[in-house]
Each structure stands twice: as C-alpha cells, then as structure tokens.
Amino acid sequence: APLRGVAPSHCDSSRVGRTERRAHTGGPLPSPPRTPAMLSLAARRFFSFGRTAPLRGVALPRAAVFMNEGERASVEGPDGPIVIAKMGGKVYAVDAVCPHMNKSMVDGEIELGPDGPELKCPFHNSKFCMSSGKCTQWVTGIAGAESKFVAGRVRGLGGSKRDVSAYNIVTAADGSMTLEKKVAE
Questions:
Q1: For labelling alongside 72, which of 46, 90, 113, 170 has CA 20 to 30 A away?
Q2: Residue 6's pLDDT is what?
Q3: Is the whole-model pTM more than 0.70?
Q4: In angstroms, rounded to a whole number, what is the distance separating the alpha carbons of residues 7 and 22?
Q5: CA 185, CA 182: separation in Å to the nearest integer?
C-alpha cells in the first residue's frame, strides 16, 4: 500500500498537489454536472433574495403579460409554483404552495375578498390574500367541504397559521414582466 503523502513511483513528485491550468483553446466549454443536488444549489444561488431582489431567470409566460381580466397563469419560482392572476385591472402573484401541508394551490379557486383577490387551497380551504400573502382563513374543512370536526383534526397536523409570499409585478419599458418578492409588513 502506498504511503500517505508520498507520490507513487510513476508520478513526477514535483507536480504532486499542484493544479494544472490550461488555456481554453476554443470549442464548447464542458457543461457542469446535472445532478439534482447541483441543479438545486445553482437555483438557490441564482434565485437568492434580497429585500426586493427580482426573480431573475423566471420567465413569465406570454399569457401572464397579455392576461385578460379574470385569467390566471402559473410559473415555477425558486420556492415552487407561483400563481399569477388579473383581477380588477391589476395583476397579482403569490406562492402557490399552501404552508399548512405543502399542497399545491395552482388550481385553487380565486375569490374576491375584502382586500382584493384571495387564493383558496383546494385541500383544506385556507385562503390567502393575493395582494399581501396574508392568510385570511386557516383550515376550515377538507377537499373543499366545510367541516368544523374535520378542520379541528386536520388543523393541528400542519402547524400554526402562516402566510405565503406575495410578489410585486414589475413591467419593463420593453413590456417584459418580472416578479419581486414583497417585504413582509
């Protein structure tokens, strides 16, 4: 067995522990590894948030840019899906993962509430204001049906009432749109 710190006899001992640098000679650059862990790390670095850092790289679908009244779209963000909807002439966007049990709200109903549209979780009926992300109703049933008995049992499973992230819609001069995470008030 070779000794630690001693170069094998077939190696040039003057090069042990040194990294050789080579100039790029043209042609395609090698692509980085595509493992799920590496992609996740790259996404976290790419989508890092400051107080109002834009979601660079999240392309809003054309449907979101030219949405008609009452229409909705979804886009994949760094923390999961984001629902975008146009109501009352204004475009709203919130995270579409319910914090109760991490269920998707992409297909949840959008209802008009006292402070604007609210996204309703289709699993346990929680509602979130799309202008602020605040939870306006926390777990009142299951699968769209209201039930105090079921709500009492299910409510404790996912922890206490929590809000979702809301986003500002920023429209550039060229008409493209980006999202900026709103700062919690």
A1: 46
A2: 46
A3: no
A4: 23
A5: 9
pLDDT tens digits, residue range 42-75? 544 444 443 334 444 455 655 566 678 888 888 8
Handedness of CA 133, 137, 138, 142 (dihedral sign): negative
Tokens of 14: 């003057």
Q: Which two tokens stand for residue 173?
A: 């001069």
User: Domains in the chain and their CATH numbers?
Assistant: 55-181 (2.102.10.10)
What would you report as the CA-atom Rg of the chain, rounded to the nearest whole angstrom? 24
Q: Is the pLDDT of residue 120 over 80?
A: yes
User: What secondary structure does DSSP assign to the chain, as a single string?
Assistant: -PPTT---TTS-GGGTT--------SSPPPPPP--HHHHHHHHHHHT---SS-B-TT-PPPHHHHTPPTT-EEEEEETTEEEEEEEETTEEEEEE-B-TTT--B-TT--EEEETTEEEEE-TTT--EEETTT--EEE---EETTEE-HHHHHHHHGGG-S-----EEEEEE-TTS-EEEEEPPP-
Q: What's the token pair of residue 179?
A: 């999202």
